[in-house]
Amino acid sequence: MRKVFILLFAFFLFSKFVPAAMAADEIDIGINPPIFEIATTPPSKVEAKIFLQNYSEIARDFDIKLHPFRQSQELNGTIEYLINDDFYGPDPLIRQKVHFFVNGEEVQKIHLDALEQKTINMQIDLQKDSPIGDYYFSVVFITESLNQASQTSTTIPAGIATNVLLSVGQKGPATGSISEFWAPLFVEHGPVYFKALIYNTSDHFILPNATIIIKNIFGQTVGKIETLPQYILSQTQRYLIDRSEGKQSEEVIKFHQDAKIPSVIWSEKALFGMYTATLQVNLSDNTRPIKKSIVFFAFPLIWVIGISVIFAVILGIYISVRRKITKLQLANSK
After folding, report:
1. d(Cα 240, Cα 200) in Å, to the nearest integer?
2. Separation of alpha carbons 267 and 244, rounded Å
3. How many helices (H) and strands (E) does the chain have?
4. Residue 299: beta bridge partners?
5. CA atoms within 13 A on the CB side of 42
6. At 39, phi and psi to the nearest 5?
7. Which of 166, 182, 172, 242 is nearest to 203 (CA)?
8. How far apart are CA 281 and CA 300, in angstroms?
9. Could you give the domains of the chain?
10. What does DSSP assign to residue 92?
11. pLDDT, tens digit, for every residue of 255-306?
12. Which among 270, 261, 263, 178 has a CA at the least distance from the CA of 227?
């Protein structure tokens, strides 16, 4: 079994245009962009610029490493590096086709003075006969952090990375399915938590858009939840989350923090009756949406208790009346 270790950050779409930063002890560096989405048809020479910034007052040297990754078993967008650095994909020599340049000179190391920023030009050279397929890897800039403890000091590796999703060749149609769509069958009140797991059966990564439409017993639409677009790697599954981050109640925020499985949350609180929720997923702009529906019921506990008491009283009266009628019928028959 191959050994793996977990990358310390999740890779979500919303981080695509947000500079990543890492600070440990006196190290303070940033990288932008934190993720590249590259699609190309060989022969081609792909170029992409990486901006590396040293925010500290100390000069730093960095080694440039490539680490292939896959999605972790958590199904939440975190990724795993392989310790033996085997690249997934049809071309075992893809690593040799990735090069880095600074001011036109190929480099494998980077030096940053205090507060300096450098632009690294990543170049991927693909020949005409390059095998088609997907490749997922991180470009990692590794330095050393000084860790002082009493009278001794040691150096530990530290670094920052940008992720690369590379698709070589013409993409086939996006295919997939809804592996799981779940909500509690009975709830007392909102918010309602949905689990939505999407399986990408394509030979390339996808960036699906999904919506949950909620209707009441009369067929009226009472809720609509937009999910956050998230990359799903080829032949993997991933739980969806909603777009409402930053607009959630403390209860919802706490649920997200405590939950082991990412959820899509309908924040409506005043609920009563039967509801139908339909998950609609567009795997790409050129495919038909896939759908799945579930039913759940919302009854406040006080209503459930009240209805149960009323039902018990009515049932008791009915049984009592039936017994009296039966006794009268027996008496009259004599």
Report:
1. 13
2. 9
3. 2, 22
4. none
5. 16
6. -125, 125
7. 172
8. 31
9. 4-168 (2.60.40.10), 176-299 (2.60.40.10)
10. T
11. 666 666 788 989 888 898 999 999 999 999 888 999 999 999 998 766 667 6
12. 263
